[in-house]
Amino acid sequence: MAPKVLISDKLSDAAVQIFKDRGIDVDFQPDVGKDKEKLAEIIGNYDGLAIRSATKVTEKILAAADNLKVIGRAGIGTDNIDKEAASKKGVIVMNTPFGNMITTAEHAIAMMFAVARQIPEASASTHAGKWEKSKFMGVELTSKTLGVIGAGNIGGIVCDRARGLKMKVVAYDPFLGEEKAEKMGVEKVELDELLNRADFITLHVPFTEATANILSRENLEKTKKGVRIINCARGGLVDEEALADLLKSGHVAGAAFDVFAKEPATENPLFNLPNVVCTPHLGAATSEAQENVALQVAEQMSDYLLTGAVSNALNMPSVTAEEAKVMGPWVKLAGHLGAFIGQMTDEPIKAINILYDGTVAEMNLDALNCGVVAGIMKRANPDVNMVSAPVVAREKGIQISTTNQDKSGVFDGYVKVTVVTEKRERSVAGTVFSDGKPRFIQIKGINIDAEVGAHMVYTTNEDVPGIIGALGQTMGENGVNIANFTLGRSEAKGEAIALLYVDDVVPASVIDKLQGTGLFTQVKPLAFEVA
Questions:
Q1: Tens-digit pLDDT profile for the chain (531 aa)?
Q2: Where is the D-3-phosphoglycerate dehydrogenase ASB domain (predicted)?
Q3: DSSP 174
Q4: Is 197 a catalytic residue?
Q5: How many CB atoms sit inside 10 A of residue 144's CB?
Q6: Does residue 341 share a domain with residue 359?
Q7: Fewest CB within a 10 Å sphere: which of 10, 285, 286, 516?
């Protein structure tokens, strides 16, 4: 059955057509996003939800989204999505960070020009029939110092445009390396130095715990007298009350804001102050940008629903379509290894250690980690998936660590998973053969070669005669057909294991009979998702 996608905000016809052309059943209801009750009523019918900013994806909406796999936001900001609730529900949240980069950067530059030359006020005065030429004395941008807070995608474009205007650019960004800054032609500085030197300050960071109120009253008071401040990023980055006070005192010469702490902004401390330019969140409001982000979100959602490729996800590692093809069997293996240990471990897990050896060590390890953790968590929570599993593990206080190394054995690549509890450590390793089939290759340090089946039985025992006979006879007498049978031992007369791949679920009565023979220290039925 084809995946179903609901578009609950206005998206272009071309975006709708992309879904249709890719074979996805699309339901275009551009007004339903504003009706919370209606959205909650129908959301359970869809695999994907495509939105802009009008739709609010709350915890209540997600609680009703039983089949939802992905939410695609046509745009950058995802403040209208409860991402924590989505992650717990196992729903991927995607945005489109590149579709409106140029548009937003251009708006910031336009706002900088507007506040430098007081263009809106001069325009309003002239329209009113006044000719107040001497009133609107501006400043040039050439040779002025622009302080850019956040030199990522959009901030980087602003830096480039500002250098074209012959401005000196200083940037504060903890993630900006010296080499990258040099290539960009900007000077990397700490925040206090930027505040002290900049004639203009523009913000281009997301709203996070680290960036909230980054231009606080204290920081605003550190700025150079006569500074002009531009915010086309997110509301809440600037203390608006403090900025209003500094504008009134004359310490700040002007401000240009496209975003506000509370939106829609029908009132604000910055409104009606001289030389303050305000626009109603227009950063991405060009026809080109609106089309770009709509097309991008349709492509990204289609790729995920049809091929498993993950692009620009906020709560899941990205996996390209090419990676998805190569990594598919390895992701399955990761899940099987996790499922094996999850089913074998009854006590609380303190830590999960994952070793990647050889070719697999060069793959997208974040995605593989999610597969392992999801496999482990499924025993306790069958609804967990690669999105929600890391959240569940984090809530339980489980430490996750990874190690990758060059090829160390006969296999081109393998994965080994070890869990640590208060009582013990337990490990299992596996690889993917050339036929694309995952295999178990080691359990408890004992080498084996076992195909993974939907229904399996794992036993441990002392290496003595009669084990194979007991297993075969008991299964045969109770109508359980063995598809594959793998044995391994640590040493002669030492610990031994057996892994049976059987056609159907083994009844509990058969497990009890095997235990009753007294030959086994452990008999455990296992189940794996092999489809």
A1: 899 999 999 998 999 999 999 999 999 999 999 999 999 999 999 999 999 989 999 999 999 999 999 999 998 888 899 999 999 999 999 999 888 889 999 999 999 999 999 999 999 999 999 999 989 999 999 999 999 999 988 999 999 999 999 999 999 998 888 999 999 999 999 999 999 999 999 999 988 888 999 999 999 999 999 999 999 999 999 999 999 999 999 999 999 999 999 999 999 999 999 999 999 999 988 888 889 999 999 999 999 999 888 988 888 888 887 888 888 899 999 999 999 999 999 888 999 999 999 999 999 899 999 999 999 998 877 778 888 888 888 888 999 999 999 999 899 999 999 999 998 999 999 999 988 899 999 999 999 999 999 999 999 999 999 999 999 999 999 999 999 999 999 999 999 999 999 999 999 999 999 999 999 999 999 999 986
A2: 327-444
A3: T
A4: no
A5: 18
A6: yes
A7: 516
- Examine the domain organization and report whether 468 and 529 are in the same domain: yes
CATH code, domain with 482: 3.30.70.260
Same domain (yes/no): 297, 408: no
Of the residues 228, 234, 336, 455, only one is catalytic, namely 234
Bridge partners, residue 463, by sequence: none
The reply to whether 283 falls in a domain is no
Q: What CA–CA distances, in Å, run from 192 to 103, 147, 148, 222, 403?
A: 29, 11, 12, 7, 38
Give CA separation, 233 vs 107, 172, 256, 440, in Å: 10, 15, 11, 50
Query: Would strands 438-443 and 446-451 be described as parallel, antiparallel, or unpaired?
Result: antiparallel
Pick the catalytic residue from 187, 263, 291, 495.
263
Domain presence at residue 420: yes
Q: Which two tokens stand for residue 32?
A: 């339903």
CATH of the domain at 31: 3.40.50.720
Q: CA-CA distance, 62 to 48, in Å (whole number)?
A: 12
Q: Which of 374, 409, 443 is the C-terminal boundary of a domain?
A: 443
Range of the domain at 392: 317-443
- Of 204, 228, 281, 336, the active-site residue reads 281
**Do 273 and 294 belong to one domain?**
no
Instruction: Give the span between the Cα atoms of 350 and 336, in whole angstroms.
Output: 20
168 with 127, same domain?
yes
Beta strands in 14-61 (DSSP E): 25-28, 48-51
Could you tell me if residue 312 is inside a domain? no
| 148 shares its domain with 239 | yes
CA distance 456 to 502: 6
Final residue of a structural domain among 421, 443, 465:
443
Helix (H, G, I), strand (E, B) or coil at 351: strand
- The DSSP call for residue 98 is T
Assess whether 137 and 83 both reside in one domain: no
Within a domain: residue 529?
yes
